[in-house]
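Input sequence (110 aa), recorded before submission:
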Amino acid sequence: MLTEKDARRLVLAEIDAVRGRVEYDLEIQRVEALPFGWIFYWGAVRDGRSGRRPLLGGNGPILVDRENERLIGLPTHAPVARQIADYGRRLRREAHARNLAAKQAAQQRT
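Predicted structure, token format:
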């Protein structure tokens, strides 16, 4: 199980992969705790002279699942809240499928 500190390290490694393709410094700007992990919002660092943050394309937030250590880059074309809800439903379906498989295996053994 990941800690937030471990998740942050994983996300920073993902951001480092982008650094070579853009001319801006990148950073994690905000982190939100979720029942199953965290969502990391990231982007360019504010310009010291203008005070503006350069706009990046494709820098959707990164969802990190604490249980299975999944990093999921969320697209920017859909609302983040909906994507989080969809992922929560996916986790519940996966848990249900595991429970059903375990019950069936137990029945076959008896």
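Checked by second reader. The first helix runs from residue 4 to 19.
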